[in-house]
Structures are given as C-alpha cells and as structure tokens.
Amino acid sequence: VRPGTVALSARGLTKDFRGFRAVKGVDLDVVDGQVHALVGPNGAGKTTLFNLLTGFIRPTSGTITVHGKDLTGKEPEEIAREGVARSFQITSLFDNLTPREHLELALQGRDGGGLRFWRSANLLRGYRGRADELIEQVGLADLAARPAGELAYGQKRALEMALVLALDPTVMLLDEPTAGMGREDVERTIALVRRIAQGRTVVFVDHNMHVVGSLADHVTVMMSGEVLASGTYEQVRADRRVITAYLGE
Ligand code: ADP
C-alpha cells in the first residue's frame, strides 16, 4: 500500500445494454489503502460498475486502470493477476467440503496447481497452514473441519470472504458483504472487513448505512448510472442531491 496513490481508477466508464445506458461516463478514483463504499438505490448501476472493474463485462467506452496500469477490456483472470479480487453476493460453496478443504483448493488453484493436484493429494496438505490462518482470520477456527453445508448463513459468508483472501488481493471488491445478515453478523462483518482492510484497498457495495458509516473512508453515491456525489460519509450524507435521491423528493 502506498497511501495517497490511486489503486483503482475509472475514466468516462460507460456501459450500454442493447441501447440502455446502465453506467454513464463514471469517473472513479479509489485511493490505495482506503475503504471505499459504493452506494445508491437499486438500479443505480453499482453491480454493473463492479462487473466492469473486474472485467466480467467490457465497457462500451472509457478506461480502467489498476495501480496505474491500463486494464481496459482485459479478461477477469488478467485483472485478478494484477491483485484485484472480488466476492459475489451468492457464491456456491460445496456443502460436503469443509472450510479447510475449500481453502486448500482455493490456494492450490491460485498457484495453478490443477494438474499437480491429481498427481498427489499430499500437495494439498502443504496448504493446510495457510488455510488454517485464513479460517482463523475470518473467525471460523472452530468450524474448520465441519461440512460447509452445516454452517450458518453468516459463517458461509465469512468462508466466502476467506476464499477471496486466499487470492491475497491488493484490491478487494465486496458485493454486499452484509446482505441478509442479522445484527450480530453485521457487526462481526464490520470488524472482519476492518481487519481485512489493513494493508489493502477495499471497495464495497452495501445498502446498510450503518455499515457504510462504520467502514468507509470514502463514499461514492450512484444514481441512474452516474456519480451523484463523492466524499466522506459525513459529506455525502449532508449533500442535498443525495438526500433528495434517497427520499425520492
Ligand atoms: P444496482 O447494482 O445499482 O442495483 P445494476 O448495475 O444491477 O444496478 O443495474 C443498473 C441498470 O442496468 C438497471 O436498470 C438494470 O436493469 C440494468 N441492467 C443491468 N444488467 C443488465 C443486462 N445484462 N442487460 C440489460 N440491462 C441490465
């Protein structure tokens, strides 16, 4: 992390779906080492922007840079190699694999060890130490050897977070990390994201303003595909246009 430099940047980012412009010339600068929240009403274009930034869809126009390197139009794998990793709102875990096994597979997958895996399952065990560190980091130490199917919802989300961390990203994009969670899990997730954010850049989408206010160094508010406001939580919360957009006046 080099504080003050830009980790992730978009210029004039635009996405059309069959003539419908979902993202309209968005400029975005995510400062290295900061936690950056992306908020806005449903349909604002947040998910589309996430998909653009991670290469899952290609922009109609505009550019994306990661640590100053132009990655516009690159495949998700190439963007991931530059240190950008994302979580999804819903990831499919394997019900009969344990958290430890999920992590071991993710770690060996990251190392491109797909073929080696078939040669020797012993190699997988080489990842056990790192797998257990990650499990501990997300608070699942007691559940490392339980089938994932038995985990509670919040615990599954924590495991998904660990799977993203296994990629050791410098920039982590989290899509609604607290969606569907009760109060306790929300607080646990806030604490977890704080820990994760040490030494890396985090961009997240969340509808829970308590989460946004607790975590975000910077907030970008989107509306109808455009950036409506950008600043600290206090700044955007006091912004007339934001209040109007949220209250629908
Ligand atoms: P948000 O995540 O802020 O709720 P989205 O990025 O999901 O917003 O959607 C922004 C707009 O783009 C919405 O009007 C949505 O219907 C539209 N949209 C998103 N994806 C597609 C798609 N693949 N094809 C057509 N329209 C889409």
From TrEMBL:
<protein>
    <submittedName>
        <fullName>ABC transporter ATP-binding protein</fullName>
    </submittedName>
</protein>
<dbReference type="InterPro" id="IPR051120">
    <property type="entry name" value="ABC_AA/LPS_Transport"/>
</dbReference>
<dbReference type="InterPro" id="IPR003439">
    <property type="entry name" value="ABC_transporter-like_ATP-bd"/>
</dbReference>
<dbReference type="Pfam" id="PF00005">
    <property type="entry name" value="ABC_tran"/>
</dbReference>
<dbReference type="GO" id="GO:0016887">
    <property type="term" value="F:ATP hydrolysis activity"/>
</dbReference>
<dbReference type="GO" id="GO:0005524">
    <property type="term" value="F:ATP binding"/>
</dbReference>
<feature type="domain" description="ABC transporter">
    <location>
        <begin position="8"/>
        <end position="249"/>
    </location>
</feature>
<keyword id="KW-0067">ATP-binding</keyword>
<keyword id="KW-0813">Transport</keyword>
<dbReference type="Pfam" id="PF12399">
    <property type="entry name" value="BCA_ABC_TP_C"/>
</dbReference>
<keyword id="KW-0547">Nucleotide-binding</keyword>
<dbReference type="InterPro" id="IPR003593">
    <property type="entry name" value="AAA+_ATPase"/>
</dbReference>
<dbReference type="GO" id="GO:0005886">
    <property type="term" value="C:plasma membrane"/>
</dbReference>
<dbReference type="InterPro" id="IPR017871">
    <property type="entry name" value="ABC_transporter-like_CS"/>
</dbReference>
<dbReference type="InterPro" id="IPR032823">
    <property type="entry name" value="BCA_ABC_TP_C"/>
</dbReference>
<dbReference type="InterPro" id="IPR027417">
    <property type="entry name" value="P-loop_NTPase"/>
</dbReference>
